[in-house]
Amino acid sequence: MSADATASASVSPTQHGPTQLNARFLSDVRPTKVRWLWPGMLPAGKLVVLAGDPGQGKSLLAAKICAQVSTGGRWPDGGKCPRGYALFISAEDDPADTTLPRIMAAGGCPSRVGCADMIDENGRDRGFDLRDTQAIDQLIQTIKSTHRQRHEDWQAKQRRQADPFDVEDDKDPTGPEQIGPNQIGPPKLRLIVIDPVSAFMSGSDGHSNAEVRGMLKPLAELATRTGACVVLITHLSKGGTGKAVYRSMGSLAFMAAARVGLLLTKSPDDERRRLIVPVKNNLSGDQAGRAYTLTTNPTDPDTPVALLEPGEVDASHVLRRLDHEAFEDGPTKLEEMIDFVRDKLADGEIPGRVMHLALGEAGMSMATFRRACGTIGVRTRRGEGRQCFYSLPVEPD
Length: 397
Prior knowledge:
Elements: H1 3-9, E1 10-14, E2 17-20, E3 36-38, E4 42-43, E5 47-52, H2 58-71, E6 85-90, H3 95-105, E7 113-116, E8 118-121, E9 124-127, H4 133-156, E10 189-195, H5 209-226, E11 229-235, H6 253-257, E12 260-267, E13 270-281, E14 290-297, E15 300-308, H7 315-327, H8 330-344, E16 350-351, H9 352-362, H10 366-376, E17 379-382, E18 388-391
Parallel strand pairs: 5-11, 5-12, 6-7, 6-10, 10-11
Antiparallel strand pairs: 1-2, 3-4, 8-9, 12-13, 13-14, 14-15, 16-18, 17-18
């Protein structure tokens, strides 16, 4: 940045010392294209939220995606998934009797899928939380070193039993791995799945926008730094109320931080079929949904597997149906509004104009807003110029 530009960006010194806004002019920025693990669904280097009701098969879908990444498999539309490592951080599934069988049933390479839920801290185990990104960075270094050893072992066996997963990829849409005669380029960590995200918040309030943003910021930086797609799995809010984009469990900050938000739901025509529809996609003009069927592996009938289907799903039709079901009963509008108001006011008092603008953007009525305020006892006060401010009632000790 030039001296003139730097001077113009400086802020007047305060009692805390001089400060400067770290700004870059777009002429100094190198443009890049969004890269995808799964085109239109899973962007590389970004946060993704996958939300659905319990028992719908979110973890099965995650296992299938991990399997695709581990082998560089092809998606149903023919596109190739970049081959690499996947990390499955789960608080619900046992690796031995659940995760491993599912990865194998989905055709994955187990040596390329890691499972974790604990952190080794000075020789003592503790639970993983979303801020433990340094531990993931260390894992990436471990992946590089162990991959090199595997490659050397493979060479020592004089290529008699070449591992089909150790051959060089076709052209990789996320960039070459620079494999040369004196340099072994290990596959990258392409995917991190956190299932469910609420289990790894270390006691933080999942309904507080400020706390959720603080927890997700290191993950978003990790995704950008490593190029890995980070998938946060969450349940839908109880009661099935409200527009689909507002129904992910906890704070709206989860969906706000994600670049892609996916909703998983049952097909109304087939009990085994699941629909994956985007409720938010800031990175692609492709707003179509996808589908998969819950089936079993013929060689292991006790292990379910997600069978991805070719073709697209009309996401707008699915979302209209879900929103209609959510709003068809009168009381659900009030319940959704109560959740909306509590979420907006979770971090403290806000000006009325901010609340009214948010209501308009969400397509919510002032009449229902007034009913919700009366129900939960929202406090109002007048500021300068008779400006209105809203806040939640003080909870008794």
